[in-house]
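Table S2 (continued). Query chain:
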Amino acid sequence: MLICVDESGRFAHRPSKSVVDCVGAVVIPDSVAEDLLGRFSELDLRRDGADEVKGSGLHDSEIATVARMVHEFPDALVFVEGLDMQLTRQSDVRILRQQQGDAIVANVPDYATDFVKADTANSRREVLALSDPLFLQFMLMTFLAEGVLRWATAYYALHRPEELSRFAWRIDPKQPKARTRYERLWTYLVPALLQARTLREPLAEIIEGDYSRMRRFDSSVAECPEYLRPLAQDLPSPFRAFDVKAILGEDREFPDSRTSAGVRLADVLVHGLRRAFNGDVTGDTARALARVVVRRPDRIAAIRLVGRDALPASAKGTPTWLRMVKTIDAIGRVPL
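Corresponding output:
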């Protein structure tokens, strides 16, 4: 499968207005990628003088056209994670960043090699040094990758098991010619954080599904390593888990969007979804976008609240994004 990832927004606190910023992924079966991306490239969407299609420059009707085209491919899946930046308080972000940084080194055993200790300590420093916007994007990208691993794999195990043999990640780079701190974190830290999360909540396998093509990503040892035992309870022996590092890293690139139709498609859809969450598209466009987004069984809302379990009592009125969340919940794609 081809997984194209992009983000939309500044991820900065907005004290006076509810504004959603988000990240998203378009998951395309390899068997239809050439056809789907070919049709996308044939759409007349470029502005005069522009060398590529950008979602920020498209009208509502053009975004809806792209979404409807994607909807014609029933096995293409769109995942989205967002934040209401008015409700994302800087104090909560600082606490969460410190917690995530400390968690990186919390389970490193005393007998770990000097290399492992130095590597994890360096990763902790990198997390703590991230700006608020980059840290929030990093966390959302981790949640996004987790959603893909949990639900795209379940869907394809039932409908297209051959797609589980390859996970090709194409991530929009911040700077096409330079690897930024954020991209290094995606490369080195997201797999580690995701491995820990899947130990606490293992990836479920659908009984009726065919996971045989995914077995090459299995990692099996006689028993769970001691340093992982605090992360989960009642782990079986022999200990078997998916090698998340291999799934996320075996085929991962940060291509220039001018050379990647998949990244350009992700840009259009993620930008369109952000506009839909913020009430800046027509109802028809919002529904066209909602129909291609995965309606995850494990969550109701696509919008996360940092440091909160629910909307605060101080929130004035109903957030605009709640209408789009309900639309996705009503007509989004069911990944089973």
